[in-house]
Design brief:
heterodimer, A: about 270 residues, alpha/beta, nine-stranded parallel beta sheet, B: about 400 residues, six-stranded mixed beta sheet, four-stranded parallel beta sheet
C-alpha cells in the first residue's frame, strides 16, 4: 500500500480526518519550503501538497498565482521541487507528499523521466490539474508503475455518469473541488457538498478530500464532518504572503494548528 | 486518416490538440461539443449563419489583384483576400457570429471573450449587442494601452473591458483570466474563444466558422484568374485566419500553404512570438501544440509589434500541418512587417492590420522567387486603423 493509502488507513482506525495543507514550492523563498513542510507536519498535517510553480496557473485564483510568480522569480522549477522533497525525506519518511501543478512542466521533463525522479525523491502522489482522465491514458499508468498515486479532481459540474471513469483512473484519494471557480474563492456551501459527496461515494471507494473555500477552523470542521480529508491552500498562502519577514514559519504553524483543532472537533 | 478528417472524436490532431483543462470545465466542453455537433447538421442553424455572414458581415469578401504592389515586389502576382472589408474590420467576426448563434441556441445570456489586438473583443462585443447578450472582454493591461481605439469601440458597443495585470499583461494572460471567469460562471456563460486554439471543440469549431474564407477563395480565384493560386499566405498568431483559408485548400496539393509567425526583433534574439519556427511541443490553455517555453516548461514572454500575434502558443492543427509537411511556417520580423504595412498603404491605398502586414511581408520575400504569371494569395485578415497609434509611435511621431 502506498504511503497515502497507509495514512488514510491509520487515520480511519483512529476515527480522525486528514488535514492536507497546500503550499507553493519556492514561496516565499527557495530555502523556506523544507522548513515550512516540517512546520506543517509539526502542526498537524497528515499529507502535504506541494505546488509546482507554473507561469500560467489557469485554475488558480490571484493568491496562488502570486505565490507561483514569487516562486518563479526565485527561479524554482520542477527539478527544484523534487530536490526539496528529497531534502524533506531525509528527516521525514512517513508524511506523504503530493505534487500539484500543471501539465507542461511535467510534459517538458518527460512523463517517464519525471515519474522515476519523483519516485526516487520520495513523492507519493501527483495531481496535474489540467490532465483529466481522458488525456491521462499513458500518464496515469506511468505514474502508477513508479509507485506514484495519480490524483484526480471531481467538481460540482461532474456528471454522475463520469465519476466512475475518474475513480477508475485515480489512486490515493479523490480531490473534490467544492465549488465552481478558482482556488481562493469564497461561499462554500457544505450542504451542497455533502449531497454531492454521497453521490461520489456510491461510485468510488477511494478516500475523498475536499478543497476550495476552507478559510478557518469552522469551515475546516464543517468539511471534516463530511469528507475524509480537508485541503487548505489559499488561506495558508495568504498567511505566508502577509507574514513579516522571519515570522512566516511561526504564523503558518499557528494557522495550521488552528485548522487541525477544527478538523479534530468534527470527530470528537 | 486524411488531413481533412481531423480532429478525431476527442479533438486530437495527431499528438496535438485534446482537452487539457481542470475538471470543472469538462462538462461544459462536452455540452458545447454535443450542441455544436447538432448545430452544424441543422440546416436552419447553418442557414442563419450564412444569412448573417451575407447581410451583417457583408460576405463574400472580395479578392483584389494588387497590381502596383506586385510590380513593386517584382515577381508573382499578388492577390489579397479582403477580410479587412468585413464588418468590424477583420476576419474575427466570422467566428463570433457562429459562436454567438451557438450561445443563443444553448440559452446562455452572458458571453465572455479574451482579446489581444482588440479585434476579437470588438467582434465579440458586436455580436453580443446584435443578439442582446451581456459581454465581458478580458484584455492584457499592456494591450489595453496600445490598442486604445479598440477598447473604446468595445465600450461603445456595451461591453465591459477588464484589463488583466497578471503575468506578461498580454493575450495569454487575458486567456487565463477568461478561463477563470468561465470556470466560475460556467452554467450561465458562453466563452467565445477568438482563435482556433484552446480545448476541444474550440479549434475545430473556430476553424469551421472561419473556413468560409477559404471556400470563397476556391470559387473566386478561378473566376478572377482561371485557376487556383500557387501559394496561399496568412499570418499566424493563434492561427484562425490562416486555418480558415488553408483548410479548404489542403486537398489542393499544388497550392503551397505558408503561415507567417511574428518574428519580433528576430527569432535569434529570443524576442519573438514564433512557436512553430522556434518552439517545442507542450500543453497550455487546454491543448497540446508548439509553444514558446523554457527548459523548465515555463511559458516565455513573447514579443511582437502586433498585439494580435503576441501569443506563445498556436492552434493545434497548425502544429499538425507543420509536422505533416502540408504547410510551411516562417517568421517575419517587426521591421519587415512595418515596411510591408507602408508598402500596402502607398501602393494600393489599403491600410492593413499589423498582423496581416506580416503576411504581406512574406509575399514580398516570396514574389521575386516566382515567375510573373504565378499567383500568391494573401489573406488580408484585418484593417489597420487600430494600429495607427502603434505605427506612429514606432516612427517617432506623436499624434
Amino acid at each position: 500500500m502506498s504511503r497515502i493509502g497507509q495514512t488514510f488507513t491509520a487515520l480511519k482506525a483512529q476515527n480522525r480526518k486528514a488535514l492536507i495543507p497546500f503550499i507553493t514550492a519556492g514561496d516565499p523563498g527557495k530555502g523556506m519550503t523544507v522548513p515550512l513542510m516540517h512546520a506543517l507536519v509539526d502542526a498537524g498535517a497528515d499529507i502535504i501538497e506541494l505546488g509546482v510553480p507554473f507561469s500560467d496557473p489557469m485554475a488558480d485564483g490571484p493568491v496562488i498565482q502570486r505565490a507561483s510568480e514569487r516562486a518563479l522569480a526565485n527561479k524554482v522549477g520542477l527539478r527544484d521541487v523534487l530536490a526539496m522533497t528529497a531534502e524533506f525525506r531525509k528527516t521525514n519518511t512517513t508524511t506523504p507528499v503530493v505534487l500539484m501543478g500543471y501539465a507542461n512542466p511535467v510534459e517538458r521533463m518527460g512523463y517517464e523521466t519525471f515519474a522515476k525522479a519523483a519516485s526516487e525523491a520520495g513523492v507519493d502522489g501527483v495531481l496535474t490539474v489540467d490532465i483529466p482522465p481522458e488525456e491521462s491514458a499513458g500518464v496515469a499508468d506511468v505514474f502508477k508503475a513508479h509507485g506514484l498515486d495519480p490524483i484526480f479532481l471531481l467538481s460540482p459540474t461532474t456528471p454522475e455518469s463520469r465519476i466512475e471513469q475518474v475513480a477508475a483512473a485515480a489512486g490515493g484519494f479523490i480531490y473534490y473541488v467544492s465549488l465552481k471557480g478558482v482556488t481562493g474563492s469564497a461561499n462554500l456551501d457544505t450542504a451542497e457538498v455533502a449531497e454531492k459527496l454521497a453521490m461520489v461515494r456510491k461510485h468510488c471507494s477511494l478516500p475523498v478530500g475536499v478543497g476550495f473555500g476552507i478559510r478557518d477552523a469552522a469551515t475546516a470542521e464543517a468539511v471534516a464532518r463530511i469528507a475524509d480529508a480537508v485541503v487548505v491552500g489559499s488561506r495558508l498562502i495568504g498567511e505566508i504572503e502577509s507574514a513579516p519577514e522571519g515570522e512566516c514559519v511561526t504564523r503558518v504553524r499557528h494557522l495550521l494548528a488552528d485548522l487541525r483543532r477544527g478538523v479534530d472537533a468534527a470527530t470528537k | 486518416m486524411k488531413l481533412t478528417d481531423l480532429p478525431d472524436s476527442r479533438g486530437h490532431f495527431g499528438p496535438y490538440g485534446g482537452i487539457f483543462v481542470a475538471e470543472t470545465l469538462m462538462a461544459a466542453l462536452e455540452e458545447l461539443r454535443v450542441e455544436y455537433d447538432r448545430a452544424r447538421r441543422d440546416p436552419a442553424f447553418m442557414a442563419e449563419f450564412e444569412y448573417e455572414l451575407k447581410h451583417y458581415v457583408g460576405r463574400p469578401s472580395p479578392i483584389y489583384h494588387a497590381r502596383r504592389l506586385s510590380e513593386a515586389y517584382g515577381g508573382a502576382q499578388i492577390y489579397l483576400k479582403r477580410e479587412d472589408l468585413n464588418h468590424t474590420g477583420a476576419h474575427k467576426i466570422n467566428n463570433t457570429i457562429g459562436q454567438a448563434l451557438l450561445a443563443r441556441r444553448m440559452g446562455k445570456k452572458r458571453v465572455i471573450a479574451e482579446t489581444g489586438a482588440g479585434q476579437h473583443g470588438v467582434a465579440s462585443a458586436t455580436v453580443a449587442a446584435r443578439y442582446g447578450m451581456e459581454c465581458v472582454v478580458y484584455m492584457g493591461a499592456e494591450d489595453v494601452a496600445r490598442q486604445a481605439p479598440n477598447v473604446f469601440r468595445m465600450k461603445l458597443l456595451g461591453a465591459t473591458v477588464v484589463p488583466v495585470s497578471s503575468g506578461s499583461k498580454t493575450l495569454k494572460d487575458a486567456l487565463n483570466e477568461a478561463m477563470r471567469d468561465w470556470v466560475t460562471n460556467v452554467e450561465s456563460t458562453f466563452y467565445i474563444l477568438g482563435t482556433a486554439a484552446g480545448p476541444h471543440p474550440y479549434p475545430m469549431l473556430v476553424r469551421d466558422f472561419q473556413c468560409v474564407i477559404g471556400r470563397e477563395c476556391i470559387e473566386q480565384m478561378p473566376e478572377l484568374t482561371g485557376r487556383q493560386p500557387d501559394a496561399v499566405v496568412a499570418c499566424v498568431g493563434g492561427g484562425s485566419n490562416a486555418i480558415g483559408i488553408f483548410h479548404p485548400y489542403i486537398p489542393h496539393e499544388g497550392v503551397r500553404l505558408i503561415g507567417v509567425e511574428a518574428g519580433g526583433s528576430g527569432v535569434d534574439s529570443g524576442k519573438h512570438a514564433a512557436p512553430l519556427t522556434a518552439g517545442t511541443p507542450g500543453v497550455l490553455h487546454g491543448f497540446r501544440s508548439y509553444l514558446m517555453q523554457d527548459e523548465n516548461g515555463q511559458i516565455i514572454e513573447t514579443h511582437s509589434v502586433s498585439a494580435g500575434l503576441d501569443y506563445p502558443g498556436v492552434g493545434p492543427e497548425h502544429s499538425y500541418l507543420k509536422d505533416a509537411g502540408r504547410a510551411e511556417y516562417v517568421a517575419i520580423n517587426d521591421d519587415e512587417a512595418l515596411a510591408a504595412f507602408h508598402d500596402l498603404c502607398r501602393f494600393e491605398g489599403i491600410i492593413p492590420a499589423l498582423e496581416s502586414s506580416h503576411a504581406v511581408a512574406q509575399a514580398k520575400k516570396l514574389a521575386p522567387t516566382l515567375r510573373k504569371d504565378q499567383i500568391i494569395l494573401v489573406n488580408l485578415s484585418g484593417r489597420g486603423d487600430k494600429d495607427i497609434n502603434t505605427v506612429a509611435k514606432v516612427s517617432g511621431i506623436t499624434l
